[in-house]
Amino acid sequence: MPLDKFKNNIREYLQDYDGKLFFYWKARVGLYTILKAMGIKEGDEVILPAFTCVVVPNAILYLGATPIYVDVSSDTYNFDIPHIEKVITNRTKVIICQNTYGLSSDLEELTNLAKKHDLFTVEDCTHGFGGTYNGIPNGLSCDAAIYSTQWNKPFSTGIGGLLVTNNKELADKVTDLCSKLMPPTWKELLNLKLLFFVKRYLINNYTYWPLVNFYRWLSHNTNIVGSSTSEEITSLEIPEDYFKAFSDVQAKEGLRNISKLGDDIKKRKENALLYTKFLKEKKKNHVPEDLFSNHSFLKYPLLVKNREEFMKLATTARIALGEWFVSPLHPVEGDLSLWKFNSNDFPMAKYLSKHVVNLPTTPSNIDRVFHFLEKHSDFIIDSP
Ligand SMILES: Cc1ncc(COP(=O)(O)O)c(C=O)c1O
């Protein structure tokens, strides 16, 4: 069975993790499930970073609870942990922290704070599979964690995600909830297979941007399998087919891709070191060297002055820069009040989402990226 083999490979990467693993059509479904298993309901508050993907507050809001955002730090792109205590109330039940771009943050401080207030912790580790924090695999320091295996994540199953928890009581509740997952339709699975083919055989330096933009358009305007449906970015109604299971089609793709993960992570770390060295020498912003490594560096964040122009130049130069997160609740731009978010309350998240791009950490030729950065270094914001 592909799923059993896939599970074994994942356990190995998580240092022979022997707790429960649950798989979903998308990681957000795992987040929703664990919050439900934690008993989150109307009137409860869930703390999360003010620099995330909109599907994270969605999972909270679908349960009738209230997202309480905390501003983030420009070092870790996760929240400033000392700020959390100020927003804890007797309605707070969970803290969701986030491994952003594959950067670890001080989870020891966070889990101690959660223990002090008797709160659950969930690590949104959608970017962080494969790194460690204090020698512990990312995702295993909290009560539970989700990992995404969507296209651009540490290893891909096309779309997909998983949930881990070492807490037996929570795992039993999740097992019960998962019995209600609906299977993907044959159309969705066919769609996925077609997308695997396109990714494997048609994507190259020349076709990357046109195909990625076309895919984004299709996923917002048609029924093609995509990252987020238009409902998820315009309303708080839980989509009818949200609670969906993982499939063997995804497990097979995952098996193929996880076999390359070791080499990819090694390369990501080497390239991240090179980026840091280059940026530091030029006195430009860079990931601090003394953070809570060992980061997995899915991407390398960089702050630039005129992102729109910089992205245009990158597209022309055929450099695959990323744009997470173009908004504090990516990808929704503009008015975020539906998600109970006021950008003015979170100045750092607002600033970062205006200026951040991310550099590829496994490019086929990193020299081309350096050449591009050198040529356009005026765009790069100086070190603080
Ligand atoms: C920070 C963050 N959390 C959660 C998710 C959701 O992952 P998925 O698309 O697998 O549901 C994403 C998606 O990219 C993300 O960036």
* Mean pLDDT figure: 93
Helix percent band: 25-40%
Order of strands in the sheet with most strands: 1-10-9-6-5-2-4
- Major β-sheet, in short? 7 strands, mixed
N- and C-termini, Cα separation: 52 Å
Low-confidence parts: none
The backbone outline, from C-alpha atoms, is: globular
Features:
alpha/beta; Aspartate Aminotransferase, domain 1; seven-stranded mixed β-sheet; two-stranded parallel sheet; 13 strands; 14% strand; globular; binds pyridoxal-5'-phosphate
Description:
This protein is of the alpha/beta class. It has a domain at 262-379: Aspartate Aminotransferase, domain 1 (Alpha-Beta Complex), CATH 3.90.1150. 40% of the residues lie in helices and 14% in strands. It is built from 14 helices and 13 strands. It has helices spanning 2-13, 27-37, 55-62, 81-84, 107-116, 168-178, 186-202, 208-221, 230-234, 248-258, 261-281, 307-316, 347-355, 366-375, and strands spanning 20-24, 45-49, 52-53, 66-70, 92-98, 120-124, 132-133, 136-137, 144-148, 161-165, 299-303, 329-330, 356-360. It has a 7-stranded mixed sheet, with helices on both faces. A two-stranded parallel ribbon has the order 3-12. A two-stranded antiparallel sheet has the order 7-8. Helix 1 (2-13) crosses helix 10 (248-258), helix 2 runs parallel beside helix 3 and helix 2 (27-37) crosses helix 6. Bound molecules: pyridoxal-5'-phosphate (PLP). This is dTDP-4-amino-4,6-dideoxygalactose transaminase. InterPro entries: DegT/StrS_aminotransferase, PyrdxlP-dep_Trfase, PyrdxlP-dep_Trfase_major, PyrdxlP-dep_Trfase_small. The modification N6-(pyridoxal phosphate)lysine is found at residue 153.
